[in-house]
Amino acid sequence: MNFIELIKRFDLLFLKRRILLQKSASDVGLYSGQLPIMKYVVRHNSCSQIEIARALQLSPASVAISTKRLQRAGMLIKIVDEKNLRSKKLTATDKGLERTKACHKLFSAFNEKMFAGFDEAELTQLKDYLDRLIANICEEQDKVDNLKFCHMVALENEFKGSPKSSKKENF
Q1: 77 DSSP β-pair partners
Q2: Residue 135, CA atoms < 13 Å, CB-side half-sphere
């Protein structure tokens, strides 16, 4: 088998996973792009929109629009920062926390289904192969000027995040 067939499989897996997860998120009232923001707010209570934009590698305008929609939906509260009146601190409401937890539960069930039938040794081997692929890409990244791997950076930031929230969950 050549690598083109493997790439097609990666693409198919990514596409199917994204479609199914977006449908699951929309079923609980969160839409594309909102879940990462909600997860960040839950983990980093009283964070600013700028912090979210930096951590998730999004434009400040995009974060502003998404947080405004989340606020209108009753999932976020924006409080003006007393130290900087132009900045707002974000906190998840009970409704937002509930929806984020529901999404997380659906995603966990989906991931368990996706990896059903794999034993621990196979999962470890798959992780090792994926780590090698990631390392190969990272070497290439150094050769390309002005190339941002936004989703990779956002994922890395998510795993490295230092939670400040009393509502912290293992999302």
Answers
A1: 91
A2: 6
**Exposure letters 100-129 (e unless 16+ CB within 10 A, then b):** bbbbbebbeeeeeeeeeeeeeeeeeeeeee
In sequence order, what are the beta bridge partners of 90?
A: 47, 78
Nearest of 79, 97, 100 to residue 89 by alpha carbon: 79
What's the full length of the chain, in residues? 171
Dihedral sign from CA coordinates of 53, 17, 10, 108: positive
67-76 pLDDT per residue, tens: 999 999 999 9
Sequence letter at residue 157: N
Per residue in 57-97, pLDDT tens?
999 999 999 999 999 999 999 998 888 888 889 999 999 99
* Nearest in space to 168 (alpha carbons), one of 108, 62, 91, 77: 91
Q: What are phi and psi of 55, to 5 degrees?
A: -65, -40
3-class SS of residue 165: coil
| 119 HSE (CA, 13 A, CB side) | 1
> Chain-centre distance of CA 41, in angstroms?
11
Q: Which two tokens stand for residue 82?
A: 């007393």
Among the listed residues 35, 9, 38, 40, the one whose alpha carbon sits nearest the alpha carbon of residue 24? 35
